[in-house]
Specification:
The protein contains seven helices and no strands. By secondary structure, the protein is an all-alpha fold. The chain has three domains: 48 residues; 61 residues, no CATH class; 38 residues.
């Protein structure tokens, strides 16, 4: 329902009677005033009813908001994550999941989140997780196998050996070409060593 007038419509009790004289139809004037009062009252009642409907709608909606907030209070949310990041320096996704899992178990016993974060069980789990992750990161780039030297990639090594390298022995094509050229120039000069 649309509200046309925002303010109550008031009809003044006293009318300007200067333009009236003995020929005035007083009955008609009275019925006109009654009609104005009746219309103003109807509009005021409609406006009041519409405002009451809006108030009841707002009250219903305002009662729904706390329910949503209460549901979120049980979850591991932004408040807990912010506390972890600022107090314990936990920002890694795995560490946050570890804290969330432990907190879900700990809160069953009625403790606070602050006491949980300072509890030796959580701090021990967090330290063990961080140590395991650091060890995994440190050992992830280590490759086993025989150690290689850079001397195999020099023309002098292959000239002394007397056979050209294969692609498996020297994987870099530019280095292999360099070795082949050195071997070809050595054959043209005739000697194996420079002083021969």
């Amino acid at each position: 329902m649309e509200i046309k007038n925002e303010v109550d419509i008031e009809i003044p009790d006293e009318q300007n009677l200067e333009g009236l004289d003995d020929t005035t139809d007083w009955k008609g004037k009275a019925s006109e005033l009654q009609k104005l009062h009746r219309e103003a009252g109807i509009r005021n009642r409609e406006r009041t009813k519409a405002l009451k409907d809006k108030i009841t709608d707002l009250e219903k909606n305002s009662q729904k908001l706390p329910e949503k907030i209460e549901k979120k209070s049980d979850e591991f949310g932004l408040l807990e994550k912010t506390y972890l990041a600022s107090m314990v320096k936990v920002i890694d996704e795995e560490e946050v999941k570890l804290a969330e899992k432990g907190w879900n178990e700990y809160k069953k016993f009625g403790g606070t989140f602050e006491s949980y974060v300072q509890h030796p069980i959580f701090t021990g789990q967090l330290e063990a997780h961080r140590t395991a992750k650091a060890n995994a990161d440190a050992t992830s780039n280590i490759r086993g196998g025989a150690g290689g030297t850079e001397t195999k990639n020099t023309p002098g090594y292959w000239l002394a050996k007397g056979t050209p390298p294969t692609a498996e022995q020297v994987p870099d094509k530019k280095t292999r070409v360099k070795i082949y050229r050195a071997m070809m120039t050595q054959k043209e000069s005739g000697g194996k060593f420079y002083n021969e």
